[in-house]
Specification:
With about 800 residues, the protein is mostly beta strands. It contains five helices and 46 strands. Helix 4 packs antiparallel against helix 5.
């Protein structure tokens, strides 16, 4: 049934057993309504578990079960609070329980419903609404007179019980020797408890408690819920927005010599001011159970873990606790998300079940200090509750890491999921690498008689009927071929298959090969680890394997997938993959040679050769080595029978020419016995310089050419000087001629100017007798001969010189 079970590593997880919990008689049913199944908790130290119920109205009972049998029980009746503000009082309406496995204690938190409107408040509101009519709208004086957080559940009293001599005893009793609360007992003077469950002041009542837990180091209690930070009146007047935030109330439990004293006090209250655990747009009334963070646990290192589904997906948050530090009052909490739904991939939903009679998250310390196993109740394929196991590690600096262990398959199998048609369940780690589940069948379920069953899951349990993860046969992708039968060595290929029904936490590939020529065999193992299979969101991905064959030959490839399904961790395909790895030519890596002189110096040519087909062998066998030097010569070398892998091939060569522009292209061709017929080639260049004789000849020629060039230059310069002198002389002569011409021109112009002036002066004077005579004689020439003589005589007579003889005409 539910006996102790030793831890089994890497075993299949399934159902260990289950028990129907009935009444004292064989067929008496204890649980008759959904309201009576109230609380569930487990002791991780001995795998016992506790159920809190309400066998009759107003009376609560806690029963301890070991292997499905009741071993201890205690009942108590919470005091009924008096009427508060003329409203009717409320009896207790709920119960939360927690186990302290270190000290064998059980704590029970009683929940109360806050009061509704009193008759007086209803009449005042009706009167105001009638008087104001349509004007009774916010932000005017007419507002809702309902009490703060009316009819919401709130923390009321905390009871403490110890297991002594196999019996449950109360840490505190009243005057009637009945169990009494260690915190929050109602007195005659007040209508509220120390938890202020009926207080009208904001920030006092702890609303919607959804779990309490015990700090294993201090033994103190923490209660998770929400607090209202604004009065209704301020909200109605639009002076403030409604602010309900997640809160954790710590309770300091007093002990003496390791025994409870029966007293407790309120310690710090952590409040999530960042609204990480519960977004600020949510009101104070909880429309869905997942709106309120739930199932707190305290880690061995003293941190508070909180399960929340309020942001549309499930998360686990962590807050450092005050530890053993005393004190009270509000402290701002700074939660850190350490696990979220995307890390599960697409198979599960991390949100908690919509209803639960107890915690849906628990932590069992294990291994080294600061480590533990977290158990969660999550939703599976058909929204059925499924146990999920996580590994928790807390470092010295209080930072934490959470990783998947797996989940219990889910689906419709009777031995792998929680068969809960009524979905009133709780999931609690019970230690010893197993998880307990409470499932309540209610009388209104129809097909089931009302009862409660407990289930245990763990390694080695039955997985009959569980859906199993499957992986398809692997195939090889090379280039564009999605199902390639062969590929060359040292070329990237992809080995792939398809996984269904789980996510891969690791994959181990076994590659066995056989050389058909030598019949040599070998094996290689390649593992894809959990770190390699996580994407940037922290999710597991089933990724194909990128690989390069190191050996030529026939390969037999198999894979084994470790999934996160606890019902079947290792998944293998039905068949193995057979492919052929063809040999790859040797790899040649030339070294850059030094420059040499043509016909005078030997070049040392060196090339490292590596046979990729013999990567794990110390020797290789070459069949052909041929050097081509680029100067018209070549040489074939007989290779040794065996060469180290890799080896350096060297040869010395004196180049007969400088090839092209002083660079000779050397080609080495190598062929090995494995890749026969497929030689490998490499080329590289060698700088071939001139010989010393060539240098001397070139320098003498250059000297002669330089002398000739100087002589030509000197002759050229002399010729240029002569031509320049001649040009200068011509220029001087031309300048002189130009000057003389200029002077002659100037003299001529001066003479002409003088003559012109003289003429102008003479033109203005009376003509002389000689001028007159000449003029008259000139005119006589125009006369006829008969008259010309007479005319001349007249002219001389008139203008001739005085005192001279008369001109005689020649005979």
């Amino acid at each position: 049934m539910l006996g102790a079970l030793a831890a089994v590593a890497h075993a299949e997880w399934g159902e260990l057993g289950h028990s129907e919990i009935l009444g004292p008689k064989a067929h008496d049913v204890i649980y008759t309504s959904s309201a009576s199944v109230l609380a569930f908790a487990a002791d991780s130290a001995d795998s016992s578990y506790y159920i809190g119920d309400e066998p009759k109205e107003g009376e609560y009972r806690i029963q301890r079960f070991v292997e499905g049998k009741e071993e201890a029980s205690i009942s108590f009746t919470p005091p009924e609070p008096k009427k508060a503000h003329d409203a009717e009082g409320e009896t207790a309406v709920g119960l939360e329980i927690a186990v302290d496995p270190v000290h064998s204690r059980v704590y029970a938190l009683v929940l109360y419903k806050r009061r509704s409107e009193s008759e007086k408040e209803e009449k005042e509101q009706e009167k105001e609404e009638t008087a104001l009519g349509d004007a009774c709208d916010a932000p005017k004086t007419c507002w809702d007179r309902s009490p703060l957080d009316s009819e919401e559940e709130a923390a009321g009293e905390l009871y403490a019980f110890e297991l002594a001599g196999g019996q449950l005893v109360s840490a505190k009793e009243n005057s009637e020797h009945k169990p009494a609360p260690i915190v929050g007992e109602t007195t005659a003077e007040t209508s509220t408890t120390a938890f202020a469950d009926q207080s009208e002041q904001p920030k006092e009542a702890l609303l919607h408690p959804r779990g309490l837990t015990v700090d294993p180091s201090s033994g103190d209690v923490a209660i998770l819920g929400i607090e209202d930070e604004e009065p209704d009146e301020n909200v109605e007047k639009e002076e403030a927005e409604k602010q309900c935030r997640a809160a954790a109330q710590f309770v300091i439990v007093a002990t003496k010599s390791g025994t409870l004293t029966g007293h407790g006090s309120l310690g710090h209250r952590y409040v999530d001011k960042a609204d990480a655990l519960r977004p600020g747009e949510l009101g104070c009334q909880s429309e869905e159970e997942t709106d309120v963070p739930l199932s707190p646990v305290v880690t061995p290192g003293g941190n508070l873990l909180i399960y929340s589904g309020a942001q549309g997906e499930g998360q686990i948050w962590e807050v450092p606790t005050p530890g053993s530090e005393s004190g009270e009052g509000e402290v701002e909490a700074k939660p850190t998300m350490i696990y979220y739904e995307h890390q599960l991939g697409l198979l599960l939903n991390l949100e908690p079940p919509e209803e639960a009679a107890g915690p849906v998250m628990s932590l069992v310390p294990e291994g080294a200090a600061g480590e533990g196993r977290i158990y969660l109740g999550v939703q599976g394929f058909a929204h059925e509750p499924i146990p999920l196991a996580l590994h928790y590690v807390e470092s010295a600096d209080k930072s934490s890491e959470v990783s998947d262990i797996g989940w219990s398959a889910g689906g419709a199998g009777e031995m792998c999921s929680i068969p809960s048609p009524d979905n009133v369940s709780a999931v609690v780690g019970a230690g010893q690498e197993r998880v307990l589940v409470l499932d309540a069948y209610l009388e209104e379920a129809g097909t089931h008689s009302p009862r409660v069953e407990s289930f245990a899951f763990g390694p080695g349990g039955s997985t009959t009927g569980c859906p199993q993860a499957t992986v398809s046969d692997p195939h090889m992708i090379f280039g564009l071929n999605q199902d390639a039968p062969e590929a060359p060595t040292n070329q990237p290929v992809t080995l792939a298959s398809e996984l269904k029904g789980a996510d891969a936490k690791s994959v181990k590939w076994e590659l066995k090969y056989k050389d058909p020529a030598t019949a040599e065999e070998g094996q290689e193992t390649v593992e894809q680890t959990a770190a390699q299979l996580r994407n940037v969101h922290g999710e597991y991905e089933f990724l194909p394997l990128k690989y390069e064959f190191k050996h030529a030959g026939e390969y037999e490839i198999s894979e084994a997938v470790q999934g996160d399904d606890l019902a079947g961790e290792t998944v293998k395909p039905a068949s193995v993959l057979h492919v052929l790895a063809t040999a790859t030519t040797p790899i040649l890596k030339p070294a850059l040679p030094k420059a040499v002189r043509v016909n005078e110096e030997e070049a040392t040519l060196s090339v490292t050769v590596e046979d990729p087909n013999t990567a794990e062998k110390p020797k290789m066998h070459l069949k052909k080595i041929k050097w081509e030097f680029g100067d018209g010569t070549s040489q074939e070398v007989t290779p040794p029978a065996e060469l180290a892998n890799p080896s350096e091939l060297q040869i010395k060569h004196e180049f007969a020419s400088r090839c092209k522009a002083g660079k000779c292209k050397v080609t080495l061709t190598v062929e090995d016995t494995v890749a026969e017929g497929t030689p490998a080639k490499t080329t590289f260049e060698v700088a071939v310089n001139e010989s010393l004789v060539e240098i001397a000849q070139r320098e003498a020629k250059e000297k002669q050419e330089a002398q000739e060039a100087r002589e030509r230059q000197e002759a050229k310069e002399r010729q240029e000087a002569k031509e320049a002198q001649e040009a200068k002389e011509k220029q001087v002569a031309a300048e002189k001629a130009a000057k003389e011409a200029q002077e002659a021109k100037a003299a001529k112009e001066a003479k002409e100017k003088a003559e012109q002036k003289k003429r102008e002066e003479e033109a203005h004077k009376a003509p002389t007798r000689a001028q007159q005579l000449a003029k008259a004689l000139k005119a006589c020439k125009k006369e006829s001969k008969s008259k010309r003589g007479k005319c001349d005589a007249t002219a001389y007579k008139k203008y001739g010189p005085k005192g001279k003889k008369k001109h005689k005409k020649k005979k």
